[in-house]
Fold this protein.
Amino acid sequence: MRLATLEGEVLAGLVGEEVVALRPALTAAMRAAGEPDTAASVIPDDMVALIGDEAAMVAAGRALAFAARAENAALRRPLGAFRLLAPLKPGKILGVGRNYGDHAKEVGGPRLEMPRIFLKPTSSVVGPGAAVRIPPAVAKPDWEVELAVVIGRRARDVTENAALDHVAGYTVLDDVSAREFQFDVPLPMTSFAKGMDGFCPMGPWIATADEVGEPWALDVRCWLNGEEVQHGNTRDLIFPVATLIAFLSRYMTLEPGDVIATGTPAGVGHFRDPPRYLKPGDRLRMDVERVGVLEHSIA
């Protein structure tokens, strides 16, 4: 499934390139089966509650399957008819630095022996199509396309073999970064550099784990104003998804709705010669294979 949040906090799913509001579709499916309409109690009000409830996820699948039938076209609307919000409001966002081999080479320094973790606040999250305003005092704003993992089941002290059982799905994330606070100050402030308002565009939806399959070989690409500036593959992850979940769960409990931003491939602006930074009017397009395409602009 591909699950989205529409303007007005309406939970929806996609059938091809059409959008289906989950509650009305489930209501229609129940009535067609002669069942009492309990859709309002079965489908929660927000995405975190939905992905954390196995019965609700089954019901969402039923709603989308019913809406996909040819005779139920009235339940589907064109994707362009809606404004999509960020697919969820994460409990916490855990970022991973220098996690692609090619990006680690362009940054330089010793190979990491364990994941390098930072935090992005939930206040930094914006949805697809957002115009991210860079604070006037920030001189070196940069882009980072990332595969983001959305946790669906509570994880504490899980093994790598069991780690993917705790994944609800995946989305696309831009880890916007003010590089001067990472590299030009005596004590690097990575979380601050990456945590300003709007510095976490996310979306356009959550592609569920069964939709994406194994996350071991997904192409990850970014275009800036139509020019491809990043092209990597999750094969190059130093610490793969399962390793990250197992590592993090040894130190903190991962809850449904938590997001792990798994790192970015080579090609960010700061390490180009000469460096290249974001400016007002720039447009970014970020694509993670089998997950989706996130687009946003810079204001």
